[in-house]
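Let us practice reading a record.
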Amino acid sequence: MSDTVARPLGAARTQRKSTVRSKQSRAALWFLLPGCALFTLCVLYPIVNSIALSFYNWDGMTPKTFVGLANYVELFQTDTFYTALKNNLLWLVLFLLAPPVGLMFALYLNQRVGGIRIVKSLFFAPFVLSGVVVGLVFSWFYDPTFGLLRLIVGHGVAVLGDPKLVTPGIILAALWPQTPFCMVLYLTGLTSINPEIVEAARMEGAKGIKLFWHVILPQLRPVTFMAIVLTVIGALRSFDLIAVMSGGGPFDSSTVLAYYMYDQAIKYYREGYSASIAVVLFAIMLVYIVFHLRRMLREER
């Protein structure tokens, strides 16, 4: 008799638990739904739409004309595309100075001394400024008639008017806010380091560079990955400083893929051609990020 009563009670409890789990799953789905909808609308749809648009010739007003791969063929035969691609590669190389320099600043500021919070705020201040403000500040800095650079070197240097100097000059301006951003990422990572591991390493005789390289830096690997990915995305998306400081000139010598895409879409109404540039830029970004992601996952295993 007791077994007969226990079985229905056990079955009822199991059914009640499954009902609760089902309700929790449905609630979680409802919470995820707005985020998924926004991601689809703001990320997936523009990507798919750009890929589809790249096979058409369209000025934004008249009906679209299907041209197949003609936009890509023209793109890969244009000298400006290779100039922009070369500048993007230069941005990638030089802009990646931001994470290591940001780490150096973070290590310096990660100490408990009086007034360190004020110093941190001063270091972080450039990141708060908009790209337009940074561009204007460095345009005045580089001005060959009254700029601060003229006072430093003793004579006027037309940085933004020299095809060889304009891109490094703009990248230097971009490093000013990007470096403190990486610094804040590393400061956050340094607070999460296990002090017991550091103390144990010190007891084993590790100190200085050896302690940093073998104990501290491995624990900062996720932060390093995030800093590199965001820096790479920032380098490939570089637009505002170029628009403010040089307008892609002189003679397209400072243009990058993002600015070239804007130039073709807004000035010349070539929406399909600019979409093909966007697809190439997205492919470069995707390959670079997937490579670093796979490398990080392989190291964690």
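A brief commentary: The chain has a mean pLDDT of 86.
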